[in-house]
Structure to design on (190 residues):
């Protein structure tokens, strides 16, 4: 990748959904916890300076509702694309989707699902085995990457820093700049 073109890829897993009977998975709405957590995610994105230029959101009801509540806290209305391919996308499919983003976009946010979203994050920020061994040997406290590996809960946000054009994004080419969960956001407010 060429250097000098700082970019951010923000991955937001949809907020907690409800499980109403006789509703297809794609049509499940947010539950009470999801409606509480999504605005917190939006406030954090705004306050931390990770406001997207472009949003690519799953067409699933819970993802669309998550984005609506997040967007309401940003203070801006970025270009938003609702893409049916995000719903059941693999990490590879999501990577291809990100590679097609316009060169002018500096921050792209994807609102999606497990397992594709966490798998994409882990692939893009792949840590070398020697770095992992060093951390274990020195008993370094759990990092954001360790937390992401353990669980990417609903309404969690991974911010990946990268350089170069979107079209050249590849596994191992990003750095995990932040990983926040609804729990960590609540704990930081206390």
């Amino acid at each position: 990748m060429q250097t000098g073109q700082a970019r951010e890829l923000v991955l937001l897993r949809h907020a907690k959904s409800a499980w109403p009977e006789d509703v297809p998975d794609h049509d499940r709405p947010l539950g009470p916890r999801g409606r509480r957590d999504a605005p917190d995610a939006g406030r954090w994105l705004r306050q931390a300076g990770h406001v997207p230029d472009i949003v690519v959101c799953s067409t699933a009801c819970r993802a669309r509702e998550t984005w609506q509540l997040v967007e309401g806290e940003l203070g801006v209305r970025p270009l938003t694309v609702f893409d049916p391919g995000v719903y059941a996308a693999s990490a590879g499919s999501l990577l291809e989707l990100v590679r097609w983003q316009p060169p002018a976009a500096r921050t792209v946010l994807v609102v999606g699902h497990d397992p594709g979203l966490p798998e994409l994050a882990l692939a893009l920020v792949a840590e070398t085995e020697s770095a992992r061994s060093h951390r274990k040997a020195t008993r370094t406290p759990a990092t954001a990457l360790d937390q992401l590996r353990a669980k990417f809960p609903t309404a969690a946000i991974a911010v990946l820093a990268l350089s170069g054009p979107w079209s050249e994004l590849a596994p191992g080419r990003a750095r995990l700049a932040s990983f926040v969960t609804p729990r960590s956001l609540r704990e930081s407010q206390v």
